[in-house]
Each structure stands twice: as C-alpha cells, then as structure tokens.
Specification:
By secondary structure, the protein is of the alpha+beta class. It is built from 11 helices and 17 strands. The strands form 4 sheets. The protein has an 8-stranded antiparallel beta sheet, covered by helices on one side. A 3-stranded antiparallel beta sheet has the order 8-7-10. A 3-stranded antiparallel beta sheet has the order 16-12-17. Helix 1 packs across helix 4. Bound molecules: fe (ii) ion.
C-alpha cells in the first residue's frame, strides 16, 4: 500500500471499525511481520524450557483437550524439525491424525525485529484512536485444528490476526445476537446460526480484525496454518490490570512469617487494637505498587514499550570504548524522568534504568537522541562534568546499548 492509501485506510479504520465492526483485508502488508523461518527460530527459543519456566505462556491442545506442556514437552517445536512444516509433519505423525493447536503468548520477548515492526503498526492506530488501556501482546496460533477448543467465545480483547502461512478463518457474531441466543456461548455446534455470522478470512499479507465485543470461533479447514494474533486488552477500568501487574511483581518469599498473628484474649485491652505487623507489611507492598513514584516508572516503560505487556529481552551489555561510534534514534528517543530521592528513570524500548540523577546523564541522553553519529570520546569529553567520570559515562552508554537506546554505528 502507498503511504497516501495507508493514511486513508487508517483514517477509515479508526472511524468505522476500531471497537465497532469486524474486517478482513486480503492484501495489506508489503513486508510481513516475520517470515516462517523467523517464526520457527523464535518459537524454538520460546519453547525451550530446559532452564525452567519463562515469562512465555505456552498452551497445547490435542483434539480440543489441554495437554501439559511439561508432560508433552516432545510435542513442542525442536531444532531437529528444521522448519514449522517439519514440526507439523512430526506432530501429525506422532498424533496419528488427531488435530492439534499450539498457542504461544508473548513471543515478542524473543524477537526484537517483530516488536520493532509492530511499533510502527501501533503508531498509526494509536495516533487515531489513542492507546488501549492497558497492554498489547502477541499470541501465535499454529496447528491443523478446525475450531477453537473453547468454542464460540469472547475475550475483552480487540484482535488483529496476521497470517504467516495458510489461511486464517474466524467466524464472528455481534454480542447482541449472542445475548438473544445464549445457546451459542462456548458451543462448537453453530450451523443453525451461520446466517447471523460473518466469516473473516485472510491469506498471509493481509489481516483480519474483530472488536472486543465480538464472539468468535476459529474455523480452520484442517490444513496447517500459522497466524499471529496482535491482541489489545480493552478494559473499561484499570484496576484489574494494576492488580494483575501487582501480582506479577509479588515475591511471596519476601513476606513469609508465622501462620498466626497475636491474639489478645482480653478484647478490652488497648493493645488489641494495634494493627499487626504482618498486616502492615502486606499493605505496605500494595501501597508501594500504587505510589506515584512507581506509577511514573510503569508509565514511562509503557510509553517506550509501545504499550506491550512484555518487551524484548535486553541484549547482552557490551563494553563501549572511547574510539567507538554510536548512534541513538530521534524517532524513538530515550526518555528520562527525574524522580523523588534524586533518582533518574531512563527508559528505552520498554526497559528502565534507575540511576542516581546527574546533569551529565541528561546531557548525554539529549545528545544521543539527536540520532546523529557520535564519537564516544568526544561526546564524553563534551558532557562529563564534576562528579561524573569518563568511566561512568562509558558504563552508562554500555547500559543504554543493552536496552537498545543506542547502537554501535558501523563507521
Ligand atoms: Fe479468543
């Protein structure tokens, strides 16, 4: 699509479809989100559980029944499969004709290029409709399955499905129709309701979209397909998401104690009214997760992370020396915020560095954000002031490189 066509497409999408109506577009992308081989390599990383559980969420269904991924670890993609077609051949043979679907959430954690590609897609949407509250993530669906195991269902999510191989087909109904026909809920038998539905379908290069109030069921034709669901949480309130976030950060091991708290038999004693220490500690955790300081850090990460719930892992920190040439990005600048306690929160690509505030750090960030090529020695010479050495500067640039706020220029 040409740039002018893209602008009018997004204008129309924002006006007519976002959170309103489903849509199929057969040809849209001149460059796919990722190739089949890239998806295979990414899934190998996501499905490697040899070092324990990761933040990736993996679900496997055989004949509509959930299987434990640890017990059926051999049914996940392996390097020996060579490709996703090879994986499908092996699984079809091992399952002797039973149908399966593998669903992997948050694969963007292992694919920076996919995440960076999506950032551009999201920008066009966010500029027009705002940022959904709260959180975006990818889920890949692959397999030879006919129907979603859950049947006709609904999630509080607005979804773009981007097929990678094979055709993606999804049947959707408006929520008013489901309200009048509750038998459809979670049903796999819906032939009598086909007239009220819309069949969305798209080959690779296009996409299908449905709003968060649409009830839907995947309708495969038994052929192997791979499709990426770019999923937008659509919560009308934010309390739920903050509670989920709180739970994800809760480290139970730090709050262990006795199973009882003091009990005062004589209830008229004044000491019986004192709040127990264990209760104060629990409340302190909740307070810390809703303090302005915490929320500012969280919001900074959401902005630079394009609202993704999980962002690509940082890359290995490499030493930067004074002869290196580096480059930042004016399009995706490193952002910073001065916080209480003379701290400086520095964020790029959804990651955050929490540092003691210093004017040199802010000066360095402003310089790299111009996007031009910079010689490290000259940059540090110009920016480093009292209390901030050249070595401090090299160390900071190395951390920035790890979160991809800068890259080494090729010269
Ligand atoms: Fe769904």
């Amino acid at each position: 699509m040409h740039d002018s066509d893209l602008i009018s497409f997004w204008d129309e999408f924002a006006r007519e479809y976002w959170e309103r109506k489903p849509l199929s577009v057969e040809t849209f992308f001149s460059r796919p989100a990722l190739s089949e081989d890239d998806l295979f390599q990414t899934l190998l990383k996501c499905c490697d559980l040899t070092h324990g559980k990761t933040e990736i969420d993996i679900r496997l269904y055989v004949e509509g029944q959930a299987r434990s991924v640890l017990k059926f670890y051999n049914l996940l993609p392996k390097a020996a499969d060579s490709s996703l077609e090879g994986y499908n051949r092996r699984i079809e043979s091992e399952l002797k004709g039973q149908e399966y679907v593998l669903i992997v959430n948050y694969l963007e954690v292992n694919n920076f290029a996919l995440w960076a590609w999506t950032r551009e897609f999201l920008k066009a949407l966010y500029e027009r409709v705002g940022m959904n509250k709260l959180g975006v993530y990818y889920a890949v669906f692959l397999g030879n399955y006919h129907k979603t195991p859950a049947g006709v269902h609904h999630d509080p999510e607005s979804v773009f499905h981007l097929p990678v191989a094979g055709q993606k087909r999804m049947r959707v109904w408006p929520e008013e129709f489901i309200a009048r026909n509750p038998r459809l809920k979670n049903s796999l038998q819906y032939e009598e309701f086909l007239d009220a539905s819309t069949l969305l379908k798209s080959p690779p290069g296009g996409f299908i979209y449905w709003p968060s109030n649409a009830w839907h069921v995947s309708e495969g034709i038994g052929e192997f397909s791979e499709s990426l669901a770019l999923t937008f949480n659509c919560f009308k309130e934010l309390v739920r998401q903050l509670m989920i976030n709180m739970e994800q950060h809760y480290d139970e091991s730090k709050y262990q104690g006795e199973v009882t708290i003091p009990f005062h038999a004589r209830a008229n004693e004044q000491s019986s009214l004192e709040i127990p220490e264990a209760l104060k500690q629990a409340a302190a955790f909740i307070q810390s997760m809703s303090s302005v300081d915490y929320l500012q850090r969280l919001w900074l990460k959401m902005i630079t992370g394009s609202n993704f719930l999980h962002v690509p892992k940082p890359q290995e920190a490499r030493a930067i020396n004074q002869h290196d040439l580096i480059r930042g990005s004016s399009e995706h600048p490193v952002k910073w915020l001065q916080l209480a306690g003379e701290r400086l929160a520095v964020s790029a690509n959804g990651h955050l560095l929490d540092l003691p505030d210093h004017s040199t750090l802010r000066a360095l960030i402003e310089r790299v954000n111009t996007g031009g090529e910079l010689q490290v020695g000259q940059l540090l010479e110009a920016c480093c002031t009292d209390g901030f050495s050249i070595n401090d500067g090299l160390s900071f640039l190395s951390q920035l490189q790890s979160i991809r706020g800068i890259s080494k220029a090729l010269g």
